[in-house]
Amino acid sequence: MRIALANVWNAFEQLWAHRFRSLLTVLGIVIAVTSTITVVGVVQGFTRYVAEFLQGLGTNAMWVWPERPGGEAGKRLGRIVLDERDIAAIEDGCPALRRISPLVKPPDALLQYGRDELRVPVEGASAPYHAIRNFHVAIGRPFSIVDVEERHHVCILGREVLRKLNLDEGVVGQTILLAGRRFQVIGVLEEKGSFFGNSQDNLVLIPYTMALKMYPALQRKIAMTAQATSELAVPEARAQIVNLLRRRHRLEAYQPNDFNIVTQDEILEAFNSLSLVATAVLAGIVGVSLLVGGIGIMNVMLVSVTERTREIGLRKAVGARRRDILLQFLIEAVFLSLLGGALGIGLGYAMSALASLHPQMVNVVIPWWAVALGFGISTGTGVVFGLVPAIKAALLNPIDALRHE
After folding, report:
1. How, if at all, do strands 61-66 and 259-263 pair?
2. What is the pLDDT of residue 157?
3. CA dist., res. 307 & res. 385, Å (int)
4. Is this structure's pTM higher than 0.85?
């Protein structure tokens, strides 16, 4: 124990005596560890951000829309249709679903209130939409079944629309012009925030039946959102929708679906796959920095062995064993790497904190294992690249070392 402590102290003295050179030596390690901490933190932050966004879209939610598949098989399909009869059949024939809501997405429409006007995204939906998407009405009321069935001229505004028109919640009960038609504002949606810079609050909801009346061309291009009875029922609900629509559209076994369906889990899995690819690419860049840092440590330690050849010979002459010399130089290499690791972790935290301050950036999350990985990288680099100089020092002949000038 005393010998080990003496070696550690001796390593510290040697590095402090050449502190500027030591600092330059560990720059590669600092860059590698900083990159590791920052990359992991950003990826974890984006993963949490996307997961929270998907949870905000609704619990156990899925989306279905008409889509022509690619390739020759898709070209041979007839007209691609998803209409109200399909949605009614899904509602009646899929017991694994708790709620469904048609979705009609017409072009952006001109909204006029007094002298102010604004072009806004419009979305047609039904009464269950709010529960499925977890997008509730903060002021006023949601759509009723009567609003949808009777095609009432009613609408619900997002918070961003109010801000752009400099309106407050007193607009509920007032009348606006939307695409040249009069609509009564019956509610204001709760604030959902932005996703990658795109506001979820910049929209106007109207009954989907009213949207179809305004835009008849969309009657055969209706999408829908649905909610399964539970998280475990999502795969079953998905299978029921696929089987029912394929039967209704009279698709043969060899023909692809003429619609698309995605669930929350599928979106999250796709994002996680993308995150893994991005992390792997960035890990390659980090690996280059690590290699450069390790070679730098090895070169400096080889120079140190040459400079201290007489010291090594003297130590061997007074009884130092090969393993003592090897341990001394190995400790110096590991100490250099750990110094670079500590500086890299500190810089990684600093860069992550600065990145989080940007208004368009997610909150960077640095897990504990990223810090452990940083220290592991630095320690491993010191051991791997410090072995060659340490072995060279340990194998020096005492007599030749004492003669060295």
Report:
1. antiparallel
2. 93
3. 18
4. no
